[in-house]
Amino acid sequence: MLAPYRLVIFDCDGTLVDSQANIVAAMRRAFAAHGHAAPSAADIRRQVGLTLEILVARLSPGIAPATAHEIAETYRGIIRGQRSDGSLSEPLFDGIHDLIRDLDHPALFLGVATGKNMVGLEHTLAHHGLRNRFHTLQTADRAISKPHPDMVLKAMAACGCDPHETVVIGDTSFDMEMARAAGVTAIGVAWGYHPPADLLATGAAAVIDHPRDFIPRLQSLSSSR
User: Entry's PANTHER family (predicted)?
Assistant: First the structure.
């Protein structure tokens, strides 16, 4: 179908689902709860995808590691509460459900590599009826944070795929850097949290404007190899 590609690894927040409203609001609440100035929405979006403690530290340079951990734990508690009371809103981006359906093929493995923890990712995928579409899930609580290639390496090992058979699709420079460090193809998306210019500058082979563009673009990359 997409030969030589056999493994497609998606980012989650900003690529599969639009979770920025929840992330921004919860992060600002977490900072305020510990007496720190709430970071701007733009600054928060810029760091989405990193492990929470790293994200917090980047939002407040010089913050003590223990405080960063406390803010991250408060954030996690806010998100857990929203999952429990049903107020967590993470809609799929337009066209994502159709893309996942179109990639349902015996020759393809699908995976996720995300800054979410496993509980959060499982909840998101189950909510949208997509859990059984993915063969490997790599999360920040079980792997080294992006942009380290650990998540991609683990996904490839789980599916028995090599770098030349693997593509990462994501919305941040962290995704592109992770893919490049793992030696795999990177495709950026223009509907997420980092601008296309940043994605191209950090290793994207292409940036697509809509999920329907992914398969044709990857096929064109395949034919040019």
Answer: HYDROLASE-RELATED, PHOSPHOGLYCOLATE PHOSPHATASE
